[in-house]
Description:
The chain is of the alpha/beta class. It has helices at about 1-15, 25-40, 50-80, 85-100, 110-120, 125-135, 140-150, 160-185, 190-195, 200-215, 220-245, 250-280, 295-315, 350-365, 400-405, 435-450, 465-475, 490-505, 545-565, and strands spanning about 320, 335, 345-350, 370-375, 410-415, 450-455, 460, 485-490, 510, 525-530, 535.
Amino acid sequence: MRGYAILMVVLYHFFPTYFPNGYIGVDAFFVISGFLIAMILTRDEKMNASVLLTFYYRRIKRIMPLYYLVIIGIQLTLLSLLPSTYLKINQESCWRSIALISNIKQQGIDQEYEKMGNSITPPGNYECVKEEDEEEMDNRVQHYGYLFAAAPGFIWIPCPKHWLRIATTVSFAALIHFGSSYQVVTFSNRFVVYVGDISYALYLIHWPVYVVVNSYSWNPLTDYLAMITISLILANAIHYLFERQYQQWSRNSISAVVIILMATSMALFHKLTISMDYMKEQKFDLANININDSAWNMTLTRYATESVNIRDWQIGNFCQEDLKFREGLHRRRCCSATNGTGTYRILVIGNSFACNQGDLVYNAFRKYVSRFMIVAHAGCEFMTGTDSSYCLRGDFNHTAVLQRTKPDIVFVMSRYFAAKAWFNTTRPISEDGIFQDFMINMNELERITNKVYLLQALPSCVKGCEYKAFMFTKNGRPLRDIKDGLIERDEFYARQRILEVGKRCSKCEIIDYYPLLLDENEDYLCYDSRTNIMLFDDSNHLNIFGKERIRNMFDHLSEKFGKEISHI
């Protein structure tokens, strides 16, 4: 059973499209572990302190040495194999894992436990039917449909006790009868038994392997083969060379190993923290670029990326966290600047792009600011709904934000996801649902504010583009040889939608970075082909070099705005 459970989990992580329900394997692990733990505890007729101490020692012996060994491996990988941007992403989770508090339930708007608690709709087929039919149903039918769907979970049907006993007896009899015929085929398969034996090691190791291989990935077919092969080899080696060996050690030896491994992981965490502080404090000489030294230029890019990303997320230079909305925004998603001496309330709203580029707006429009605000909701698009895989809070109420902040000028700065979806260009664009969302939100903006700057869509940088660029150039190859291999040409439909919105909006002005990021051959590549310097990081955010390219645009917008208000 453990073999099937771990196979479900691995397939779900490696191939989520084809095995969307593989996460059930985790539940199976919990059931199996719960059964074994309860069985072990009930072996002793007397439950006393000695029995409990022995029980918990066995649990620690079974889990902790391998757990901390894998954490140490992950930390070493972060320091040696993965891009520097991964340090920031994993710093907090690393500490929580060392302290064994990763799975403690937290009160927060984005916690998975609360999401599950709020979900009452049956899974699977009902959800498909609901999506297909809800446009054709009026509101009353929809509401009654939800009630009927939820009702089985709240209806208690009385059942005599002897019925339950009969049903249980019959079920077990059937299981024993039919199970005796099939257990050799299903649960005694050698491969499944082998995977079950290494299941704990495989469970711990497969996801770090996935992340590392993904960071070096070029060919999806070979990537998946490498993930599976490396995961099995490492899990097998760890199981036989470490896990099975320490199970034979004495209690004192086990205690010493756990303490040493925990101390080592804490020391490495301190090393991660030092690395983060070092990158945060780096000063960059942007003129120190050697066209013949691509490795140094990529190192400079990585340091610059880390520095600018830390500053963008914290926005400590000019922002104070004093905006409060009923949605309970996370502290990294909403902030407000100190009051200025100007007369205009300026709001930058969007997703992580708003944080990434908000300082450019502030520095250019500083003299006009009476109040400067940034509302950044990571992974979400202000102008339309975004898939939940990007946006954790799709129900975020932007109207409430606008009514609360009452801005005179709004900069809509989003990295687009849903807006890049295909639409039929032979049909009137007014029939497109995403365009309709854009217009609804733009009409709301025009009603509330005096001026709207709308960011135009850009091609996406491929996943891990910065690191792939580094790997490409580390042996002296110029980035120009990769041509457009770091770019996804996915911007066309979003640009068409935004262009049409601009035509219909009297208070709008479209901001377009595209012409400013072209190389000398008028190609958009997300890097400078002359210097091997990347303009974007692995998260599709502009790094310090990319931001330098577009800084003058905001200065010109500010000058133009000053001329416009001088004629009012």
